Amino acid sequence: MKQLLTIAVLLCVVGTASYGQGCSVCTKTAQGLGDKSAKGLNKGILYLAFLPLGIMGTVGYVWWRAKSSE
């Protein structure tokens, strides 16, 4: 269990550094596009994030239910 926790923490730390630069690029792009396009960009980001978050939430819920029924 400690190994799994260590690996998860390391992946979060390493992943944060590599994906952190995308936020500033999106912000500058949205500032240059105008209000309507910026709202569309934000909706597109939420749309793309919904499927992976939904899958992770479903797997987490199923895992939690299986663990709580023991």
Description:
With 70 residues, the protein is mainly α. It has one domain. Helix content is 93%, strand content 0%. The mean pLDDT is 78.
Average pLDDT confidence is: 78
Radius of gyration: 18 Å
Which residues sit in consecutive blocks of at least 5 with pLDDT less than 50? none
The domain tally reads 1
Euclidean distance between termini CA atoms: 18 Å
The helix content, as a percent range, equals over 70%
**Most strands sheet:** none
Rough outline: elongated
**Share of β-strand residues:** under 5%
Task: Give the strand tally.
Answer: 0
- What string, H for helix and E for strand, traces the elements in order? HHH
* Count of DSSP H/I helices: 3
Query: From the structure provided, what is the oligomeric state, counting identical versus distinct chains?
Result: single chain
SS-based structural class?
mainly alpha
